[in-house]
Structures are given as structure tokens and as C-alpha cells.
Amino acid sequence: MNSEVIRVEYILETRQLTKKFGKEIAVDKVDMKIREGEIYGFLGPNGAGKTTTIRMLLGLMRPSSGEVHIFQRDMRKHKLNILKKVGALVENPSYYPHLTAYENLEAIRKIVGCEKSRIYEVLDIVRLTEAAHKKVKGFSLVMKQRLGIAASLLN
To answer: 20 to 30 A Cα–Cα from 17, which one of 7, 64, 104, 140?
Structure first.
């Protein structure tokens, strides 16, 4: 009989994650465990706390109580190191409408420090290669969302 202990590691884990705005509880004691490679969705009506939860996961909003661990590290203690490895798109993507898709990604690339070749890789992933040198102000909503996804995948 094998008595070896199997340790399950999670890419993301929350413990009793809670957010209050005054007396209103927006997120109430959420326990979540997501393994690497799993797909996890937030479904619910407006005001259910989906965006608030995502903002807490990304360190954009401080929880009232509870913990967030990403890559087995506490978000409160290791926020910058964690966020260097995370891409996110919360609600509406940000972009410069007067620049092309490529130029928008180039601006982000300089911040995150990845290779220039990565720009065309992410444009290909989101099927925007043919629009790489078109100004974003002429993009449809779907194309702008794809560009936002490309930006989140860049690093």
C-alpha cells in the first residue's frame, strides 16, 4: 500500500473572500479553488459581485476580509510578482483609438518587457493579424474586445 501524500496545488485559491461597502455585503465568504488549466466562469445577475470578486483577485480592490492566493502566494504579500504573470481583461478594454492595433500592443509590450514577435503571436491568436495596422477607432466592438484579449495575453 502506497502511503504517499498527494498534494494538490491550485493556481488560484480564495478563503472566505468578502467585500463590504458600508453595511452592504457585495461578496460573501467565497471559497474558490482552481487548478492550472481549468476554466472557471462567473455567472449571475447584475450586482451579484462578479466584477468585485475579479477586482479583488487582481489586487485592484482590497477585500474586507479573507485571502487570495495565486500561484500558491498570498496576493497581499506578493502582489507585484504575481501580477507580472497574470493577464486580465476586466469589463471594457482600454486602448488608444488614434493608434493601430500593433501600436497599442507595442506600448504595452514596452511596459511588460516581452519580445516584439509576441505582438504578432497574440494578434494571430485573436484573429486580428489583418487589422494589425488599422487604427483602433475604426474597429467594431468585437474587434476592440479581441484587442483587449490580445493585450492580456501579451505577457
So the answer is: 7
Q: Domain ends where: 57, 83, 109? A: 83
Give me the long-range contacts of 87-91 (CB less than 8 A, separation at least 24): 87/151, 87/152, 87/153, 87/154, 87/155, 88/54, 88/58, 88/152, 89/145, 89/148, 89/149, 89/151, 89/152, 90/51, 90/54, 90/55, 90/58, 90/60, 91/51
Same-domain status, 68 and 117 = no
Residues 78 and 112 in one domain: no
- pLDDT tens for 56-89 read 998 889 999 999 999 999 999 998 888 878 877 7
Number of domains in the chain: 2
Indicate whether this model's pTM tops 0.85.
no
